[in-house]
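ZP: hey, is the N1-cyclic inosine 5'-diphosphoribose complex queued? I don't see it on the tracker
AM: it wasn't, my bad. submitting now with these inputs:
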Amino acid sequence: MDDVETYSSRSKKRRSRFLKFGLAAVIFVVILAIILGVVLSTTARNPSGEKLKSTVITRCEKFVESTNISRDCQKLWNLFEQAYVGRDPCAVPPEAYNPLMAGMHPDPSCNRMLFWSKTKDLVHDFTEKRDCYQTLEDTLLGSVMDGLTWCGKEGTRETFTTDCPGWTDCDNNPVRLFWNRASAGFADAACGDVTAMLNGSIATPFSPASIFASIEVKQFNSTRMNGLNVVLVTNKNDITTCENPSLKVLQKELDPKLKYSCKEVTQSNIQECMLRPDPACGACW
Ligand code: N1C
């Protein structure tokens, strides 16, 4: 009798242990499925955010590799992202990129820094072919973010690359604030003789709304800089010259301790110069 009782109580215990184990296994599988589902749906729902992240990290790694500087590209992404994720894309605080700038400051090349306004394509063609000047896009942050669009949204940690506010839709959008902040940092570091390529084919080469006028010139510092040399890029039949009223405004806005010069140079002259590589970076105009 005792034996029968012991046998049945043992088998009950075994059954209950089996049930407990089964229940735990089911709960584990359900939790795993939920986690996997959330991860997969975030990636699938937001492929553009994932693509931006991989573009930023890949560009950063390429830059680090080609320049031999030491920077942590995952840290760059984290600092970058924290500026705009979860925020209304028209209400990003102007200081949002300060931690990114503080962690990734540019190394300025004195006497070789090149600023520009409304001459972007020509300038980048020029710096690429004749490696004598450094623009903001030749620094880590500028080269990584050049040409990209991004924004966040309130209530989500995701990054979006479409339906973001345009350059002029609102002032405090993440792309505009990035260029404002990066340009301010680049101009603040400007040293020696600085060059600016401005567009002589437009009526106002020094336009008050441009980043060059509204941010960079205001940061130029005579303790580090010697002077500013404006290269006014002209085309045949242009009427804008170095006497243009907007360039007089530029001259007035500069610290009087800074030397100022302006030279009209034809676009074809600049294009010829690009074809003459010169390791000594001698004068081209
Ligand atoms: O408003 P801008 O020119 O005067 O700005 C140019 C000025 C340069 O000297 C750069 O140092 O500001 C800096 N800068 C960039 O480096 C940059 N890369 C890409 C400013 N804007 C930059 N972009 C994009 O070009 C930016 O997203 C915006 O759309 C234009 C501004 O160009 P602009 O009006 O010709």
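AM: back. The domain at 48-274 is CATH 1.20.82.10 (ADP Ribosyl Cyclase; Chain A, domain 1).
ZP: great, adding it to the tracker
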